[in-house]
């Protein structure tokens, strides 16, 4: 009887030891997944537009990491600017049991039907950085102040070109965002609200005459189209006079403008002021070398944080943090939004804003290609 008691005790000790070893082994074998929280059994579909722009890669990576740390399964998909591919990806997310969708659209008008499927399935949808238009299926919107981005670009031009005190008119051409992106419309509004008075009083001269959104928008934010437009402006309107300012809504446009200027023989002596948006690492490198004047820094880590808190709130039945309930009317409803603040970055403050914050290292900027 005594032997039997000892045997049972020994088995119990061995079982406890194995259990403890097993727990330790699972934790160790997790590797990079060690920071993930225990699964909550809920799945989030994240639909991003493209990997051709660095900012969307960072957005997707940040979103996935932060959601997984909260214990959610994440299905992250990039559609490479193929509208139908994005529709199919979202359909698949719905079919495979997503409990929430985060959508940065390519063309939101093409998503109306698939978003209705999400609503019918009672799946909440959060618009990420690009407002989803003409649908009542969107619950919340996380973005930057897009009109504020345009205002920041224009105010920078006013200050750096010293338009208040300039003795001579300065020439300007506009390169605005995609017509299927509501953010681009708001950005143009912000730009023109500030710069239109200077166009009216002659301190700014747009020799092409193209200042309206319809005349300056560039489909799918195409760098190649921006370069072609700039080449056409330079050959058609600036053969005998320099272009002073290129008001560009995107870093990718600035790269195309840079190529067009180099092809036209511009040098440091007559290089124009060039704006941008997103503070991509190549843009920051160009800023340090004088080939781009400024960019709008949009901290995608901060934006991802705000969107993730929205996702967590809707999945756990609480109210997310909102700071705008008036601006973003998508044609069906005013979408409750959280708007982050954009920051203008140039040669004078990139170190403080970009490097000191850890967003990029000096080596990343120096070695950008």
From TrEMBL:
UniProtKB keywords: Signal
Region listing for Disordered, in residue ranges: 25-45
Protein localization: Cell envelope
This protein's record includes keyword RNA-binding: no
Domain Periplasmic binding protein: 44-318
InterPro entries given in the database record: Bact_Solute-Bind_Prot2, ChvE-like, Peripla_BP_I, SBP_2_dom
Domain of life per record: Bacteria
Signal peptide bounds: 1-24
Pfam families for this protein: Peripla_BP_4
Biased composition (Basic and acidic residues): 25-41
NCBIfam families hit by this protein: ChvE
PANTHER family: D-XYLOSE-BINDING PERIPLASMIC PROTEIN
Protein name in UniProt: Sugar-binding protein
Species per Swiss-Prot/TrEMBL record: Bariatricus massiliensis
């Amino acid at each position: 009887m005594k032997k039997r008691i000892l045997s049972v005790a020994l088995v119990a000790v061995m079982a406890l030891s194995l259990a403890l070893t097993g727990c330790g082994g699972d934790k160790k074998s997790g590797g990079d997944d060690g920071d993930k929280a225990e699964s909550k059994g809920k799945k989030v579909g994240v639909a991003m537009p493209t990997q051709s722009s660095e900012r969307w890669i960072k957005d997707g990576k940040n979103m996935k990491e932060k959601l997984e740390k909260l214990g959610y399964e994440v299905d992250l998909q990039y559609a490479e600017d193929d509208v139908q591919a994005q529709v199919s990806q979202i359909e698949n997310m719905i079919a495979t049991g997503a409990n929430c969708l985060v959508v940065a659209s390519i063309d939101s008008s093409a998503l109306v039907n698939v978003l209705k499927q999400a609503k019918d399935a009672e799946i909440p949808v959060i618009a990420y950085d690009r407002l989803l238009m003409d649908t009542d299926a969107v619950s919340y919107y996380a973005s930057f102040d897009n009109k504020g981005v345009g205002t920041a670009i224009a105010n920078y031009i006013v200050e750096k070109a010293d338009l208040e005190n300039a003795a001579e008119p300065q020439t300007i051409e506009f390169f605005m965002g995609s017509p299927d992106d509501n953010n681009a419309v708001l950005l143009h509004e912000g730009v023109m609200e500030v710069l239109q008075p200077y166009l009216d009083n002659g301190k700014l001269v747009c020799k092409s005459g193209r200042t309206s959104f319809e005349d300056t928008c560039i489909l799918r934010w195409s760098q190649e189209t921006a370069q072609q437009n700039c080449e056409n402006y330079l050959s058609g309107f600036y053969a005998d006079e320099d272009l002073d300012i290129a008001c560009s809504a995107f870093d990718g446009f600035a790269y195309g403008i840079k190529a067009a200027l180099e092809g036209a023989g511009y040098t440091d002596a007559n290089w124009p002021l060039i704006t941008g948006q997103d503070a991509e690492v190549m843009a920051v490198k160009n800023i340090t070398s004088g080939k781009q004047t400024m960019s709008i820094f949009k901290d995608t880590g901060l934006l991802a944080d705000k969107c993730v808190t929205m996702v967590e709130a809707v999945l756990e039945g609480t109210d997310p943090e909102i700071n705008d309930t008036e601006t973003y009317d998508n044609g069906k409803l005013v979408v409750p939004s959280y708007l982050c603040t954009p920051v203008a970055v140039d040669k004078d403050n990139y170190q403080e804003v970009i490097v000191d914050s850890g967003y990029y290292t000096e080596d990343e900027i120096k070695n950008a290609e």
